[in-house]
Amino acid sequence: MKIIVTSIFVEDQDKALEFYSEKLGFIKKEDVPVGEFRWITLVSPDDHNGTQLLLEPNDHPAAKEYQKKIFADGIPAIMFGVADVRQEYRRLIGKGVKFTMEPTEMGNVTIAVFDDTCGNLIQIAQK
């Protein structure tokens, strides 16, 4: 068994697609209409057949509440691995991404956290 799709709740699918593809550099894998929303997935540019990230509409009240509460508590919704957190931090700052935590060493891991503009905090980590 392996993970093939994981999702993140987003307030606006179009805005999220733009952020995750243009700012973060993920590649759109699927974009299929599903009722009033779309099934939009992205993959890493380094692994076109890897785990897909689904931009899940937060239309359900429980999804909105969950998303709001973890954001308010400063809890990242997801973590992405990077080869060099400081280099990625500088690249994303250059693209206008707003960080809530600068690169910080935590034992053998260096992390940073940013706002995805779609209702989530995202953590990047380097082991």
UniProtKB/TrEMBL annotation:
Presence of keyword Plastid: no
InterPro entries in the record: Glyas_Bleomycin-R_OHBP_Dase, Glyas_Fos-R_dOase_dom, VOC_core
Protein name as catalogued: Lactoylglutathione lyase-like lyase
Keywords: Lyase
GO molecular function annotations of the record: lyase activity
Pfam families per record: Glyoxalase (PF00903)
Native species: Desulfosporosinus orientis (strain ATCC 19365 / DSM 765 / NCIMB 8382 / VKM B-1628 / Singapore I)
All residue ranges annotated as the VOC domain in the record: 1-127
